[in-house]
Fold this protein.
Amino acid sequence: MNTVADERVTEVWERLVREAQQSGYIVNTDDAFAKDLVRGLLENEARYGYRACPCRLASGVASEDQDIVCPCDYRDADLDEYGTCYCGLYVSPEVSRGERTGGSIPDRRPVGGVSARGEEMEQVSMKGLAFPVWRCRVCGYLCARPQPPLVCPVCKAGKERFERFM
């Protein structure tokens, strides 16, 4: 790989690390591994026009792949249950401290991709909201998602400080 590409990978990796830290997330501390994943993200961006997860098959249609654009929709659930996201780019604090090891993670993406997921969400949304709304009890931040975030992006409170809202 040429120097310009390596410089671009390092630039994007450093930005991901900064943004993750600011949002309460941790990028895998195996820098070489994480940079290989960033290289895959950049290859997918060049190929498709968006940074699809390098560990999943993208269709090349942005609307069908929106759930696997990094960070994917499944990151928080994977971190919570397995300590690492599907591709291993993001890890939990326990994994980063060596208190837990990441293992094999089943793919949460519905067969057929986002279109299947969209149909499921459409059925659920007829009964109400597609996802529960979570409120940070510390700062009042609201988000609609299957589970609360691991860390509040505003005040950095842990997920245990979130409550279902409404």
Q: What stands out?
A: The two ends are 52 Å apart (CA to CA). The domain at 131-166 is CATH 2.20.28.10 (Rubrerythrin, domain 2). The chain has six helices and five strands.
